[in-house]
């Protein structure tokens, strides 16, 4: 199926090289498509590794193995297979992953556990070992490629390549963080068919890198949803090659650690937003901010109840400031809320306060806001100080078309 | 918006009169539609009342008041307003309900608390008191109407009138239960924009009637979902006039109590299925049965994770036996499950067992099953004895069309 480029797409940024990272792509032919589908990143010796993974209990072999590798905290290479998720494929799926790890480890003369593997695509079909072997052999011989080529190659139903780049100063050393990500459906609270990779030349202890990534993840990837479904393969990995030459960061007591954390927060949020911007069928990018909840976690859950509500998402698709559906979604979240204290605003214009429609509510500017591509919904619960923002997209005919026809 | 009759509609059954129940309809003109929109049921003195209501914390005034009336356990009349849900309307909404109760109570010379009121339709607009007053005055003068006319009149976005009738023997007395229901979207675990009314001539103590209704509700209305959204107004009421002349049922120790409970279970399940059959945009009726879960509650939650998954529902819409999406949905439920013990069947044909696709899996009969209107998905978790069945419908372009355009 040929998908049109999302109207919410952003152009791919200029991304500088990262010392210690070499990218290559090749064609393994996992699906009948005429494009590269195997991405390889070679990483300098000494690269630190961190990762966060799907909470789906029926996760893929790659995720199970990745969790163990993250504990070791080091990486020499990353292989991403696109077109086949290798999930729910039992021992045959595991053998294919182990084969890839061994093949790359042999080439680099490293431990197989230093080779990270991700796979994305159809569930339930074991990754074909012969295609994987030939694909890996080809990619090891391939020329170096650009960040954009790598971002295109990890994609599946994505309609645009997604990347972001930020810098930070650690003492007087400038470090760069580059990220690429894929994912467009099955995006939910605990992440999604989303594979994201962040590469930095900063020197960061792997334990501290994990701490920073887990923290950034809570404010970014765990705050987006497209359709409430949660993939079995979601993965975000961070690799720090240390080639920038800064004194390695080990805790927030180190100079520059705060700047690094801020940069990581920034790139994770940029990448997360790009995934929502490619939400299947998305026509509008929606930010839902909840204030006045009993606490931040409660605000987060209320935000997700709104962001996952098909009735709210279809109302936004229809340009309808239907705050009644927002009330409904607040009420179904099961969190503390009082109907008679609720306030609801669209684009900063309050439609209801203290549980009642505002007498002087002027729908015209709200209707104009809803005609745009970027929609803001704010809900004030009126109980406490808890707040959270989550991001989603509208629910349109495009979502149905993509998902009723995908596999076949 | 004119909606086409659901392809899953069933014909309205022949429903006999219920002694002690008189139905009438009138036009209050809550919306600009050329049809009756106010339904009135007059109930004999001594009628017992039971009810179950939405768990949405932002519920309507009608629901708040209904909960109190159910504690009293008696009813003389029911008024149902269609076209305006009166939810999120503050004191003005409450005044409108109290006015209706007083008006009917004056006519019947009963307590206002003996008059039940339900409202369904758009949220956030107070029920207009002048229209309600004129509508109630008209309905009290109207001729008696049929069950089908009442079922049509309580509807909003419904595409067909929904009713069911069953009988039971209490000792040597035959009793009848008639039910009508409305609802087609916003149907979710804890009920939905669903208003259901069950009338019986059986004599049943109100406490026991409540016990039976709560019990039947768990196996029927709480086992259906259309879109995971939960209305602020959901209500199912049961009225027992006692005119059949049986010895009043007060507990399961009474002769005939089991037969009555079975009949109530039957009619609640029939009514619940009718709501799913009118799910917005529904083309297929889907039964999801989960076996082998750790316990029944866990099976229920897993069933709902599947039944609410947009990716599963769009796959069924597309006639795709995409059991990988079912695995994903099992995994996201957050319930005990082991990927390598899962079995998944469509229409009784196993596609996967013990976490692997079956070697001899023949997709042809499954594809044929998925072409039909009635789809069965069975998931065996392989851990324990817990089981549950929930019902839903597919997710189609029709859902988007209806909900992106509804209010305006």
TrEMBL record, chains A, B:
<feature type="binding site">
    <location>
        <position position="408"/>
    </location>
    <ligand>
        <name>substrate</name>
    </ligand>
</feature>
<keyword id="KW-0055">Arginine biosynthesis</keyword>
<dbReference type="InterPro" id="IPR002813">
    <property type="entry name" value="Arg_biosynth_ArgJ"/>
</dbReference>
<feature type="site" description="Cleavage; by autolysis">
    <location>
        <begin position="192"/>
        <end position="193"/>
    </location>
</feature>
<feature type="binding site">
    <location>
        <position position="182"/>
    </location>
    <ligand>
        <name>substrate</name>
    </ligand>
</feature>
<feature type="active site" description="Nucleophile">
    <location>
        <position position="193"/>
    </location>
</feature>
<comment type="similarity">
    <text>Belongs to the ArgJ family.</text>
</comment>
<feature type="binding site">
    <location>
        <position position="403"/>
    </location>
    <ligand>
        <name>substrate</name>
    </ligand>
</feature>
<dbReference type="GO" id="GO:0004358">
    <property type="term" value="F:L-glutamate N-acetyltransferase activity, acting on acetyl-L-ornithine as donor"/>
</dbReference>
<feature type="binding site">
    <location>
        <position position="156"/>
    </location>
    <ligand>
        <name>substrate</name>
    </ligand>
</feature>
<dbReference type="Pfam" id="PF01960">
    <property type="entry name" value="ArgJ"/>
</dbReference>
<dbReference type="InterPro" id="IPR042195">
    <property type="entry name" value="ArgJ_beta_C"/>
</dbReference>
<comment type="function">
    <text>Catalyzes two activities which are involved in the cyclic version of arginine biosynthesis: the synthesis of N-acetylglutamate from glutamate and acetyl-CoA as the acetyl donor, and of ornithine by transacetylation between N(2)-acetylornithine and glutamate.</text>
</comment>
<feature type="site" description="Involved in the stabilization of negative charge on the oxyanion by the formation of the oxyanion hole">
    <location>
        <position position="120"/>
    </location>
</feature>
<keyword id="KW-0963">Cytoplasm</keyword>
<keyword id="KW-0012">Acyltransferase</keyword>
<keyword id="KW-0808">Transferase</keyword>
<keyword id="KW-0068">Autocatalytic cleavage</keyword>
<dbReference type="InterPro" id="IPR016117">
    <property type="entry name" value="ArgJ-like_dom_sf"/>
</dbReference>
<protein>
    <recommendedName>
        <fullName>Arginine biosynthesis bifunctional protein ArgJ</fullName>
        <ecNumber>2.3.1.35</ecNumber>
        <ecNumber>2.3.1.1</ecNumber>
    </recommendedName>
</protein>
<feature type="binding site">
    <location>
        <position position="280"/>
    </location>
    <ligand>
        <name>substrate</name>
    </ligand>
</feature>
<feature type="binding site">
    <location>
        <position position="193"/>
    </location>
    <ligand>
        <name>substrate</name>
    </ligand>
</feature>
<comment type="pathway">
    <text>Amino-acid biosynthesis; L-arginine biosynthesis; L-ornithine and N-acetyl-L-glutamate from L-glutamate and N(2)-acetyl-L-ornithine (cyclic): step 1/1.</text>
</comment>
<keyword id="KW-0028">Amino-acid biosynthesis</keyword>
<comment type="pathway">
    <text>Amino-acid biosynthesis; L-arginine biosynthesis; N(2)-acetyl-L-ornithine from L-glutamate: step 1/4.</text>
</comment>
<feature type="site" description="Involved in the stabilization of negative charge on the oxyanion by the formation of the oxyanion hole">
    <location>
        <position position="121"/>
    </location>
</feature>
<comment type="subunit">
    <text>Heterotetramer of two alpha and two beta chains.</text>
</comment>
<keyword id="KW-0511">Multifunctional enzyme</keyword>
């Amino acid at each position: 199926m040929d998908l049109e480029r999302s109207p919410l797409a952003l152009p791919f940024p200029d991304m500088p090289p990262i010392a210690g990272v070499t990218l290559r792509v090749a064609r393994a032919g996992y699906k009948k498509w005429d494009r590269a589908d195997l991405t390889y990143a070679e990483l300098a010796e000494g690269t630190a590794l961190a990762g966060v993974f799907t909470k789906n209990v029926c996760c893929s072999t790659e995720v199970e193995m990745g969790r163990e590798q993250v504990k070791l905290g080091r990486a020499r290479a990353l292989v991403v297979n696109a077109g086949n998720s290798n999930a729910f494929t039992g021992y045959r799926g595991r053998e294919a992953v182990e084969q890839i790890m061994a093949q790359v480890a042999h080439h680099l003369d490293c431990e197989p556990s230093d080779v990270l593997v991700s796979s994305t695509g159809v569930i339930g079909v074991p990754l074909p070992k012969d295609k994987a072997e030939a694909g890996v052999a080809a990619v090891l011989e391939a020329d170096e490629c650009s960040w954009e080529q790598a971002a295109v190659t990890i994609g599946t139903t994505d309609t645009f390549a997604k990347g972001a780049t930020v810098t930070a100063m650690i003492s007087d050393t400038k470090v760069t963080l580059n990220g690429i990500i894929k994912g467009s459906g099955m995006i939910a609270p605990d992440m999604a068919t989303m594979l994201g990779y962040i590469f930095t030349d900063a020197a960061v202890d792997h334990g501290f890198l994990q701490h920073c990534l887990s923290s950034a993840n809570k404010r970014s990837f765990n705050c987006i949803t497209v359709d409430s479904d949660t993939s079995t393969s979601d993965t975000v990995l961070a690799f720090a090659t240390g080639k920038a030459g800064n004194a390695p960061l080990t805790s927030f007591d180190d100079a520059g650690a705060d700047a690094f954390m801020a940069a990581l927060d920034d790139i994770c949020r940029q990448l997360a937003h790009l995934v929502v911007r490619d939400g299947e069928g998305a026509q509008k990018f929606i930010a839902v901010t909840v204030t006045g909840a009993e606490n931040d976690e409660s605000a987060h859950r209320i935000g997700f109840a709104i962001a996952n509500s098909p009735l709210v998402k279809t109302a936004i698709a229809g340009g309808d400031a239907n705050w009644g559906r927002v009330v409904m979604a607040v009420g179904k979240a099961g969190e503390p809320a009082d109907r008679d204290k609720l306030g609801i605003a669209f684009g900063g214009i309050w439609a209801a306060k203290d549980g009642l429609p505002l007498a002087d509510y002027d729908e015209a500017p709200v209707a104009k806001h809803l005609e745009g591509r970027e929609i803001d919904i704010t809900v004030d619960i009126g109980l406490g100080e808890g707040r959270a923002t989550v991001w989603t997209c509208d629910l349109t005919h495009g979502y149905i078309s993509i998902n009723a026809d995908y596999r076949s």
